[in-house]
Amino acid sequence: MKRTQIQLDDETHAALRKIAYESGASMASVVRDTLSRALGTARPAERKPKLTFIGMGRTRQGRGTSISEQHDEAFAEAIESRFRR
Predict the structure, then answer these.
(1) Is residue 3 part of a domain?
(2) Residues 6+ apart with CB under 8 A from 84
(3) Secondary-structure breakdown of the chain: helix, strand, coil percentages, each rounded to the nearest 5
(4) Is residue 1 one of the residues assigned to a domain?
(5) Can you give the pLDDT at residue 11?
(6) Does 47 fall in a domain?
(7) Is the dihedral of CA 71, 32, 30, 81 positive or negative?
(8) Domain range for 74
(9) Mean pLDDT per 10-residue run, the chain (85 residues)?
(10) Is the entire prediction scored with pTM above 0.70?
């Protein structure tokens, strides 16, 4: 998988955010699924876990770096804490 960055107008971003929230998916997942279908590269439906905690909040800029720059570490920490229960 490759990482890329896109810019969206306000209306598109709001629509994307709404769809992601209503489906319980991340915005990135909705973008990937939509592009895959549009480009004809969609794979058969796979069972994906619902990770409802992803993208649920906002981060404050301050000490250190934002969650957008440390998302891999934050994701690993969230998964680890969930399985420690």
Answers:
(1) no
(2) none
(3) 50, 0, 50
(4) no
(5) 96
(6) yes
(7) negative
(8) 10-57+66-84
(9) 90 94 89 91 65 57 57 70 67
(10) no
